[in-house]
Design a protein that fits this description.
single chain; 9% helix; Pectate Lyase C-like; mainly beta
Length: 230
């Protein structure tokens, strides 16, 4: 029971973090309820912005965008898209947000490239997508609040995945020792834990296990399901 309480607290805390709302304000005179401090871009050209990375090992994205992740290269965030959209972005501490302007993304999604860092915490709000590529690390925490999509493959010893909404976490190609999974809504998760899995589902969420863990703890409320597809 304790494991599910801890898992619920983890899911709620991550989703609360990624849901932090922006404010309509100027870049140099903005007050955010969570202490977020936006930074000036190091490079600013029409349709192009670049920021030096200052987010430790965590990334949060709350704008409609396709995110490309490159472990190597310079530590930075590069964003391209319509100039009218770029002027409303707020970036800092590994967070990519906007100033809540209306109809901001009617001209289409942004393209974001994050490079030169090892990401151990990823938080998506709304409908962004991120492909993490081939992973080889000790831990990864992912929170999706909305319909965002994330994917990756490789090895991660400990994985924590939390979805609130209809998001999708496709880590079926990831081999893990342990996985802690929480879904509230209709989200889907796939991952391959070998030793242990703690799974909590509220709603119609689906968890697909691509390995049979030695220990499996589950709590399901609603029509959700756990499927082993090895």
């Amino acid at each position: 029971m304790k494991s599910f309480v801890a898992l619920t607290v983890f899911a709620l805390s991550l989703c609360a973090t990624v849901s932090a709302s922006g404010q309509s304000c100027e870049l140099d005179a903005c007050t955010w309820s969570d202490g977020f401090i936006p930074q000036q871009p190091s490079v600013s050209k029409p349709g192009y912005r670049e920021w030096a990375w200052d987010g430790k090992d965590g990334l949060g994205v709350s704008v409609p965008a396709t995110v490309h992740y490159e472990r190597g290269g310079p530590a930075r965030i590069v964003i391209t898209g319509p100039e009218d959209t770029l002027t409303h972005l707020r970036v800092g501490q590994g967070q990519i947000r906007h100033d809540n302007s209306r109809d901001l993304f009617r001209e289409g999604r942004l393209e974001i490239t994050v490079s030169g860092v090892t990401l151990r915490a990823v938080m998506l709000a709304g409908s962004p997508t991120i492909e993490l590529g081939r992973l080889d690390q000790d831990r990864l925490s992912l929170a999706i609040n909305g319909s965002g999509v994330a994917g990756g493959e490789g090895r991660v010893d400990q994985v924590k995945l939390a979805i609130h909404g209809s998001g999708k976490a496709d880590f079926g190609g990831v081999t893990a020792r342990r996985a802690d999974i929480s879904i509230a809504g209709s989200g889907t998760v796939s991952v391959g834990p070998r030793e242990a899995a703690n799974i909590a589902i509220t709603g119609s969420g689906i968890v697909r296990l691509t390995a049979r863990p030695a220990e499996l703890h589950r709590a399901i409320t609603g029509s959700g399901d756990i499927r082993v597809v090895d």
